[in-house]
Amino acid sequence: MLHNNIFILIFLITFSISGQYDIETKVFYHIYNQNFIEAQKLLNEKSQYMKPFAKSWLECDLQWWKAVHTDTDSAYQKLQLFLEKKINIEENKVPQDEHMIMLYKNYLMRFSAMQNQRFKVLKYFYQIESFNHKLDIDSLNEFEKDIFQIFNSVLYISKSKLWIFSDKNNAEYLRILEKYTTSDNLMLQTLSKYFLIKIYTEILETPAKAIHYQEDLMRIYPNNVNFKTLLNTEG
User: Fold this and answer.
1) According to the model, what pLDDT value does residue 167 have?
2) In whole angstroms, what is the distance from residue 139 CA to residue 130 CA?
3) Between helices 186-198 and 142-162, what is the axis angle to 10°?
4) What CA–CA distance (Å, rounded) separates 137 from 123?
5) Contacts (Cβ under 8 Å, ≥6 apart) of 48
6) How far apart are CA 144 and CA 147, in angstroms?
7) Which among 213, 207, 212 has a CA at the least distance from the CA of 231?
8) At what angle do helices 211-220 and 186-198 cross, to 10 degrees?
9) pLDDT for 116-170, tens place per residue?
């Protein structure tokens, strides 16, 4: 009976993804369900139908999760080279797309944290923070605003661990992330739950608050092996 229920759940999720969501959400679902080949196939075949920012971000997120899933030095080196190449391409454009540069640097900051490279983490943090101060939020569409709100909330909560003299009051940023956990947008909902798990376990050291989010992600993404051990592993 349990096996049948799991099969039905996976079927319903797959059916809803294939028919209900836009192409960006379909790619996102396959990435987070660790169907990397299918995600790459959709990116290759349907990129012309995708919004430019979403396409670039999903390409980046796909490389991130492939590296985390593989968890080898060569995979992480490939990820680092991918991000550095993307930044180099964007920085040589006229005009530069600073939004994308900062997005890639956000991933490099997270990568540096995984590698325990504190100096690089701080370097990328202050570059991103400087960009945020001059960001014209009205230049972003609604989805981009949501993504940057999530990433920036994580950024400033992380600051309390990086910098001893930083403001330890994270209530407002936690409220923003908690708000997105009930979003109708699967991508925003997933990101906020994932980051809250990381924050409650690694920064605030209150893992009990993360358990129900982990259970949600495991239910929605049954093939994601990293989510099954997210409370005590890197990712």
Assistant:
1) 58
2) 17
3) 0
4) 23
5) none
6) 5
7) 207
8) 140
9) 998 999 999 999 999 988 888 888 999 999 999 999 999 989 887 776 655 567 8
d(C-alpha 30, C-alpha 28), whole Å: 5
Neighbouring residues of 69: CB distance < 8 A, sequence distance ≥ 6: 34, 36, 225, 226
Residue type present at position 62 = L
Cα–Cα distance, 196 to 202 (Å, whole number)? 10
Q: Which residues of 185-224 are buried (b: 16+ CB within 10 A; e: fewer)?
A: bbbbbbbbbbbbbbbbbebbeeeeebeebbebbeebbbeb
Omega before 222 within 30 of 0, i.e. cis: no
Q: How far apart are CA 175 and CA 92, in angstroms?
A: 37
3-class DSSP assignment, residue 125: helix
For the chain, domain boundaries: 1-50, 52-135, 160-235
CB under 8 Å to 7, separation ≥6 — which residues?
none
